[in-house]
Amino acid sequence: MSTIEMVDYGQLPAVRIRGTDGAQAIVTLYGAHLVSWQGADGAERLFCSAASKLDGSRAIRGGVPVIFPQFAERGTGMRHGFARVATWRLADSGAHDGAAFAVFMLEDGDLAPALAQAWPHGFALALRVEVNGAALALTLEVRNTGADAFAFSAALHTYFSVSHLARVRIGGVQEGELHIDDNFDHIYRGIDGAMTLADGATTLHLAQDGFGDAVVWNPGALDAAALNDMEDAEYQRFVCIEPALIAPLTLAAGAAWRGAHTIRIDA
Ligand SMILES: O=P(O)(O)OC[C@H]1O[C@@H](O)[C@H](O)[C@@H](O)[C@@H]1O
After folding, report:
1. Of 64, 76, 252, 254, which one's alpha carbon is 20 to 30 angstroms from that of 55?
2. Would you say the CB of residue 79 lies under 6 angstroms from ligand 1?
3. What spatial distance separates the first Cα and last Cα of the chain, rounded to whole Å?
4. What is the residue-wise DSSP string for 171-186?
């Protein structure tokens, strides 16, 4: 039986989405942050730092932060936007053909006054998270509910758990495979095909739609040591591959944009 239930993740209220075959995901309402995903085989596929705050005082270090409306420091607003530090609502959930899903929403009226003043636009974000056997499907919808156009960037900043950074091979972002052994931060533009993340005998197949770019990031030893929400050696345990819309897109009043990210485990 598939189930949707409220659980605690650290000190944060969260929703656990479980499919009939045991595949499951946990999403905190803080940030609509996917913090855990296991396929039907029960193996955790996402990294979350042991040093991450889980009390709503700062963005969670790991999982899938929703980046909106600004990417990194490319703008005058909050670094990587406010969506990852705002509290979303569970808007819908359900099941079909063994899959289970939940939809989380954030609208301008949900924002704390300081955030709403800093970005004074009418908007509705919906993040749909679906687990289905060996697959995870994330869809982010951005709607302009205001009277004026606004421009935004967005990303699903996915932290994949890996056995060791040195064993990882990323395919589909450049000619040949990408191998990272320390600090790496690169935006790949115009991603039009599938990507792969190979780690030993396991390959994850990544596909994105709507997001034209992909960011590959790892802080490496030095930057990880400088982050106070990451253990020094943890940089070896993850790689971020982030479907992204980097150049701001202008959305007319009443218009909507959708970006999708699907991941399939091929063990
Ligand atoms: O520490 P933050 O705000 O979560 O950002 C982490 C990283 O996020 C990546 O998306 C950026 O490309 C990096 O430059 C950045 O360091």
Report:
1. 76
2. yes
3. 24
4. ESSSSS-B---S-EEE
For 184-210, how does the pLDDT look when each residue is reduced to its tens digit (9 = 90+)? 999 999 998 899 999 999 999 999 999
Q: 215 CA distance to ligand 1 centroid (A)?
A: 10
CA distance 42 to 240: 21
Residue nearest to atom 15 of ligand 1 (CA): 72
pTM of the complete model: 0.98
CATH number for the domain formed by residue range(s) 3-266: 2.70.98.10
How do the domains of the chain map onto residue ranges?
3-266
CB within 8 A of 75, min separation 6: which ones? Answer: 69, 153, 248
Instruction: Kindly indicate whether the ipTM for this predicted assembly is greater than 0.85, answering yes or no.
Output: yes
Q: List active site positions.
A: 157, 242
Taking the centre of ligand 1 as the mean of its atom positions, its distance from the CA of residue 180, in whole angstroms, is 16
Q: Cα(55) to centroid of ligand 1, in Å?
A: 20
